[in-house]
Design goal:
There is one protein chain. This protein is α/β, with parallel strands linked by helices. It has three domains: 9-61, Orthogonal Bundle (434 Repressor (Amino-terminal Domain)); 66-165 and 296-322, Rossmann fold (3-Layer(aba) Sandwich); 168-293, Response regulator (Rossmann fold). Helices cover 43% and strands 17% of the residues. It is built from 13 helices and twelve strands. The protein has a six-stranded parallel sheet with strand order 2-1-3-4-5-11, with helices on both faces. A six-stranded mixed sheet has the order 7-6-8-9-10-12, sandwiched between helices. β6 (187-191), α10 and β7 (217-219) form a beta-alpha-beta unit. The longest helix is centred in the C-terminal third of the chain and has 16 residues, at 295-310. The termini are far apart.
Length: 332
Amino acid sequence: MRGSQAPTLEAVARAAGVSRSTVSRVINDLPGVSKRAKLAVDRAIAELRYVPNQAARNLVTRRTNSIALVVSERGDRLFSDPFFAKILRGVYAGMVGSRRQLVLLMDQDRVDGALESYLCGGHVDGAVVVSLHRGDPLPARLMEAGLPVVLVGRPLEDVNVPYVDSDNFTGAVEAARHLIGLGRRRIATIAGPQDMAAGVDRLNGWQAGMVETADMIAYADFSVEGGARAMAELLQKYPDVDGVFAAADIIAVGALRTLAEHGKRIPDDIALVGFDDSVLATTTAPQLTTVRQDVEELGRTTTQHLLAQLAGEQPLPSSVLLPTKLVQRSST
């Protein structure tokens, strides 16, 4: 090629000794090309250092080679909760080798339907949706539009959308039984948001794991501040509480702050169990006993499920449930 002029499709066809349409079929991975022709085209592309025009290629394949990670939360929570960093790491790991790009979309004011319009407007091939709240119409709308989608977390609505989740119920049962096994008798919980499946399932699991009455409950969002307020509420209502299951490590961090302010010794006065086994669990003093869920695996498995959809693999499970495990540290 002369100067810095980029090689064209026609130049590749001449070098390979095939037609322009054959080169196009090879580039777009379409059928109807002999092995000999494909080898000749691949050799010519390498020799000429030809780079396909992605926009033109998308018109042929109707693919963008990108998927969206949709986080149904405000940006401040996305960047403050270590859960999302691990999800993002897992999604990235699940995409390795797929030659696809990741588009990160955060929840904003969706009154004008801009998010749905973007996702359904041919900008992405599919979507992973995380941190879904009750009543969110997004998954159903994406399915109706024919966009492949997989959820991180069980949907609370009865919608036919595939999902991958951790076994939140069993993990919470194990947390309750652990506190009981320590001899604690006045056990409370700080439950997570009840408009999210994780909050609902962990509360139900804690109640199922309790041998006696399970009515010492306070509620919080997944934040340090929410955990601090809920712990203060529990201490006011139940001053003799001696064990607490917090529905997330980030909630437990807030609970620890309030307990320290009230002069409570952990675990002597009150044993505390969290959920997630995030980086927060080993940076607190004392370190948190917690229920481990593999958040990176959650993101990776969800992404691989979506990519399998896009590849047309059949049959695929409608849901995948990943195991959890109690990790004991010095807070109990």
